[in-house]
Records
---
Amino acid sequence: MHCPFCFAVDTKVIDSRLVGEGSSVRRRRQCLVCNERFTTFEVAELVMPRVVKSNDVREPFNEEKLRSGMLRALEKRPVSSDDVEMAIIILNRSCAPPVSAKCRAR
């Protein structure tokens, strides 16, 4: 981590705490060159795999496209929107890394 004051590369972590329901980490750091202290917040970035379409074209995963397609397909069926949301959550977890780098559309 670079020091925002003197731009030195060497810093040490003084304190770490989970924040935001455990989804991010707050770290208190100190520069080893100028001894200034600063705070960083680290959040894990979930990179979803690419979707392989039936014609072998790959496109980025789009949760809104999945949601609208499922709602359109199930609009005359007795399926609640909560069930659709739960299915989307399950699909997100099953396609999330490190399971695979790509998901089949069908």
---
Amino acid sequence: MNRRLLILYFMIVWLSISSASILVRLSNAPGSICAFWRLFFTVLIILPFWFKRGCKLDSFSAISGLFLGLHFIFWMESLFLIPVLVSTVLVVTYPFYNLIFDRLFFHEKIFLRQIICLITGFVCVLMYFNPFFNKDLNPIGLILALLGGFFASVYFTIGRFVRKIMGVDLIIYAFSSYTSGLIVALIYNLVYRVDLFNYTLSTYLYLVLMAIIPMLGGHTLMNYLLKYVKTSSVTAIALGEPVGAGLLAYFILSETVDLYKIILSSIIIFTLIMIAYDEIRGNL
């Protein structure tokens, strides 16, 4: 893949996924509702392209979608319990898991500097748990965000297998996985009797934007890259999400960011740049 094009894709993904948490908070809808409608509108958008592919479904893609649905539900619920910056930092721990999965399941070479950078980034993530700087954080919110990160790692690992090893078409993979995730979100809301429909017009506007920006520009583009780039490298883009989301939360939601978090976020974004650089240099 062309190096300049790859860098452009990485930037689009980063900017897109950074907007997700802000759109969730602005919607004023429960996290599980955001998960449902985000996937619902995304499925509607790609439905015409799926028809052109012969309406095919893939079972492995559907399995990955189960974890996508859980990822969205757990993470989006955490956004209403802990600050945006903390939630996004914890949920992006999935590149750490994917680094291990790449080695164990795909036997792919991992550069030494990538390992060092991912470990450094993950250590910085853990430092957000420092009680001296982070008092009064809801432990349930922290756990939900971490579980959301783990489910995301499984989702991307299966996606890597489906896209690269099985060679499943992007649209077929996306439609199968997103529909599966949609069903998971629907079942969750029905079980817990969460109202699916009675929301304001502005709420639905933000839900549609979730489908267009972070879902198509973020997740779908990441799924496209999985065919050409290692899972750990694709998901490492998300290590920069806390920086983008934190800045947006500061300017839009008036959430303050202290110096401690700024320093940690800066280190995390630096590790992201190094990981992406080594991947590009490795002749994708």
---
Amino acid sequence: MKPEILTNLEQIQYLQWIGESQSNCKKLGKWTAAWRGEKIIDVGGLYLENGKKQGFWKEIIQNFQKEAQVFQQGEYIHEQRKGTWKYIYKNKEIGGGEYNQLGEKNGKWLELWAGFWEQSQVFYCGEYQNGKKVGVWDIFYNFDGKNIKIGGGCYDNLRNGIKFGNWVEISNGFYYDSQVTYNGTYKKGKKLGQWDISYANKKIGGGYYDEVGDETKVGQWVEISDGFFGSSQVTFTGEYKSGKKIGKWDTWFEYIGNEIIGGGCYSDAGDGIKFGNWVEISEGFYLDSKVTYIGQYKNGKKFSRWDIWYKKNYGDQKNEMIGGGYYDDEGCGIKLGNWVEISEEFFSSSQVKHSGVYKNDKKIGSWDILYRENYGDYNQKIGGGCYDEVGDGIKQGHWVEISDRFSLDSQVTYVGEYQNGKKIGRWDTWYKKNYGDYNNNKIGGGYYDEGGHGIKLGNWVEISDGFNRLSQIMQNGEYKNGKKVGRWDIFYKKNFGDYNEKIGGGCYDEIGDGIKQGYWMEISDRFYLDSQVTYVGEYKNGKKISRWDIFYQEKSGNNTKMQQYILVFIFICKFSGGGYFDDKGDGTKQGYWVEIPDSFDHNSQITFNGQYKNDKKVGLWVEMKKNQRKNFKKIKEMKYDI
């Protein structure tokens, strides 16, 4: 079996598979998985002595990440999937189908799109025959709980899995704010003729494929950028010849109006090679991060001086040079000497740059991290450290690093030591306030093992993923071999507050599996000043059981159960937020529930009230909203199958 290679950065950083391997490196026995130091409940299965999967397995999808925690579960027989397999998302079955005795998909399937995540819940619905798609396949987008048909087309019935006729397909980056589709014709599985590109049902581009049927682009095309969305409506306009870009291509950005922001020339020889002067956009280009690179190409490679420019979206809105450096003059595209580069998340409130030296395209020696505040005139050094002098880009010694979400409201840095590219020893977490005394204070940290494996050990104080001025959330507890064990507490420090208030927590088992047990008080994923929502209940072997209550604390500080006033005929009934999970420990919701949406906050206090049966909504559900008189009123009714 070919080994799986992780390309998902979150999985590389946070996913850990746990189990035994034989001397021949083949896996054996029970294997489980952990995510960010916590065991993923029920994920994994059994390997036989020959290293093949056997029996019931629960697996993560290839795109598994924080906002795409989707699982597949079903039966393996000697590494082949057999029978019914299901997709599970948020403890609900959302799709699946059957495998035949040869391990091939067969019959009706509801499949998840490869790019499925919270804001891109896209499904493909159609039929398989012996592992090949046949007949009509529809594409659905689940938005606000409703499945909307957004595309689809036909496969031949000869079981070749070949597309034909008219198709509407979605872009690779399709999501709520980037609803881009492609509309055109297939012949024998190849695109031909006119294909149009639409955004939010409005044609924005497209072009022509030749009639030969080898998917060769010809003539004038308008294409979209890879990161196209509402605030980054970037298109490229130019000509194709025999499938290769030729001549001048312009880069356009539409926001209120449409303007040329860059471009350059391709060789007229039809080899698709860039040459001469170019103005290119950054990978993360959008309204609040209008960054461009200006320089020259030679034989399709960058050479000599390239400058980085940033056009502000505030104040004087001028375009200014903020960085750059040199590529080798031989045209190999190799960075050399001093460079000033921007961070991957560069935007108006996170104007972070990295300054240092390249040698043969690898960072060496001392590199500084610089930061300029909104409306600021100068760059201040906020961090940095050293890469080894060998030229393999490995961090060594003392470093001050910034958090992944560093910005004006979240100026978080981490301070500690690297050894051969791995964190070792004590690492501290610092937070510089952008209000009050503007002090830089140590707020957390802990220890990594001295062996250079990057494993957390002992007591740690960690910040939440979304830590910022209005959401100063920290967690305090113990790690054992990189897994959370024992008691962990959750603390919250209010804006302008002087102390950390304990607002939740609970226990992990002492074995070191990262499994939650017993009574827990948890916070919502987007907990902040205006949305202080907590969930209180019990875990058993990592699964919620029995009664769970939802609490909401107003800015005033009153922490009360959410109360519902529902008009039923002429009676007013009073209910608490929350509901029941069954006591079997499979995390299944049962009976009456009062739930809140992810967007719940002070200005949008909405609840949904109704019945669950085996984790599925049934019967009448009522949407309630709090009005200015602080009463909840019914605004909508929804009916689900019983």
---
Amino acid sequence: MLTSGPCLQPSTGTPRWPTFAERAGVSTSTVSRTLRGLSTVSPEVRARVEKAAREIDFAVSRQAASLVTGRTGTVAVMVPTLNAWFTGSALSSLAPLLRAAGLQLNVYEIPDLAERTAFFEHLPARRNADALLVFSFDLTDEETARLDDLGMPVIYVSAHVDGRPSVYVDDVAGALHGTRHLLNLGHRRIAFVTTEGASGFTFSSNERLLGYQQALTEAGVPLDDDLVVSTRPGSKRAAAEALGTLLSLREPPTAIFAEQDEVAVALIWNLRRTRIAVPERVSVLGFDDQPLADWFDLSTVAQSPSEMARLAGELALKLIDDSDGDQERHIVLPTHVIPRGSTAPVAARPAGDQSARAAEGQSAGSASE
């Protein structure tokens, strides 16, 4: 749990609110909004009120404020994992925003189906938060209905749910533009590598696959299920197996689009391990624009989880203060392709290359962790 600024209440014998307001240089209504922890108070004004509180010996009490306002002073976040670039970047943006608003952050990590089932059975956030942010989950209708019954704002992040507030990138458009980048370089045998995970954690993966398929269809390129394979993020062995499957095809791909940067980097590592030049023989494109994309000169489709989290946090604060606010608002962020050194125009394939690729596929598939 990440804590942030407390709410305040007057100690016995302290000055009345007008005196307090005069010392802070604000109105009594602003003092009231600050004591109630409302996000409409700017960080600069909140700091002045808290400074005045310390000077005249106001007592710090989040519990007392909760009794008065019916609020907990907490925003809950539901994430599939903490061990991911996306989550870390998002929470690093969200935490200071909430802290400036006088709220604390409570994170629920739900990495597998067992944890997920337990969460929806008990709903620990029911009495312990003023809002819930749901990151990157493809929820069932029953799970969505359970969250609707929480009686608090629920904001979906990196996923969109009809009729509910959501903040996300257009994954379909992002993958479509990424695939077009490869098509414009002359590639027609373009593979797509998805990531494996527990059922229900695949929202972005499904959307990106759809964008890839749409781009190929628009270009008149027949869809080939053999060019779509799955792997596990962070596993060189899994990446090697996926790559081996692709290179062993009768017509192997000349370009590979990985739905995450870390998967793309693992593919590049395995390609170079088997002496297949990137991008001269195989182009590789990622999705995210993580720091490692720049380090590995990886062409990628960029998104900003920090901006996504910031906008979701601001939306949560508005809905906490106004429960009748726009509950159906969708904020859609753009993506853009960043060409780097891992993609290039398709090269002419020399005679006998297919048999060589098959041998390379067997070699790639035998790579170890």
